[in-house]
Amino acid sequence: MMRGDRVIVGLSGGVDSAVAASRLLEAGYRVEGLFMKNWEDDDDAEYCAAEADYAMAREVADCLEIPLHKANFSEDYRQRVFAQFLHEYEAGRTPNPDILCNREIKFRSFLDHARDLGARWIATGHYARVRHHAHYSELCQAADANKDQTYFLHTLTQEQLRPALFPLGDIPKHQVRERARELGLPNHARKDSTGICFIGERRFRDFLAQYLKAPEGAMRTPEGQVVGRHQGLMFYTLGQRQGLGIGGVDGFAEAPWYVVDKDLDSNTLVVAQDPQHPLLMSPSLTTEVVHWIHDVPVPGEPLQARLRHRQPLQECRVQALDTAGATVVFDTPQRAATPGQSIAFYRGDVCLGGAVIATRTTNAP
To answer: Looking at the record, which segments are called Interaction with target base in tRNA (predicted)?
Structure first.
């Protein structure tokens, strides 16, 4: 990395990407911004914040005195991310579109566009670090463990990591906000975006119902007693507590209910009042094909893993590994290991890669 190298930063309108751009300027790079529009449909004007985000990105670029490009990757997003999202839900699984978006859009479509613009590097506001070695690059956890986003980046390849910079990887979030205020950035107090970008402020069920049919069915206890009706299995995920709509049930305590399993064959949602029910606890799981960023661990090597963003790292071993996937055994049973979601593997601070969860075992007799 040389001072004066040209780098294009993905400017989203948020504070993280804005401060990332400012840090690169301070480091001596020739910085330009690029705003990505990744979704558009007939409801954009009502639900999508893309125009407001672009306007803020424009203000940030003007404040930093850098050029701002704009690109529309919505067709790529529909084909490479959204189509897979619908396919997974139709199969009764719970996908994570942010992981696929990073691999297919933010580090593929964006990277290709940046290269067309003549840039050597790309950068984003992700909380992660990358170590560039002579012949390979490593994806490493951010200094701010609470904000670390390597879980969402574990599918990146060497080709995608080699030109990548993560300027926020070594600082905590509160310093990012402080730096934005010091610089007078117009978005220094702007709320962080959350949720899935293409849904916006819509109710998830209302959005998904536009694309997929969701037949209603019975909610049953593990013992088989009907306690309610579900609106479609795709709208529920393992461990879910909110939105079940189960009122007082004769013979049961006034306590919360949790989704502990899905029976796709009978279209049944299995619920229980124990947040640690044996059906929720998985001592092991199997995955689809594992993506390794660089190092491939030895089968049985002690590793760490996380099954969701911000989960503390869990001790595990990859006991079996082949071209079809892996079997992962945990030191401690994991709650709500959800097929369709992903597991990311770590050795120390290095994210080794990860895979989509295929099946799980449970502690149920």
So the answer is: 96-98
Q: What is the pLDDT of residue 4?
A: 74
The DSSP 8-state label assigned to residue 325 in this structure reads: E
Annotated binding site for ATP, which residues?
10-17, 36, 125
Residue matched to tokens 């704009």: 70
Distance of CA 104 to the CA centre of its chain: 13
> Domain 215-275's class?
mainly beta
**CATH superfamily of this structure's domain 6-183:** HUPs (3.40.50.620)
- Nearest-angstrom CA–CA distance, 25 and 43: 37
- Is 140 an annotated catalytic residue? no
Tell me the C-alpha distance between 139 and 153, whole Å.
8
Which residue among the candidates 48, 140, 197, 316 is catalytic per the annotation?
197
Which residues of the chain form CATH 2.40.30.10? 279-360
Could you please state the CATH topology (level 3) that the domain comprising 279-360 is classified under: Elongation Factor Tu (Ef-tu); domain 3 (2.40.30)
Domain with CATH 2.30.30.280 in the chain: 215-275
CA neighbor of 44 nearest in space, from 201, 203, 187: 201
| Residue tagged active-site, from 48, 101, 140, 316 | 101
* Distances, alpha carbon 332 to alpha carbons 91, 282, 319, 365, in Å: 29, 9, 15, 17
For 67-104, the pLDDT digits (tens) are 999 999 999 999 999 999 999 998 889 999 999 999 99
pLDDT tens-digit series, residues 102-133 = 999 999 999 999 999 999 999 999 999 999 99
Global pTM? 0.93
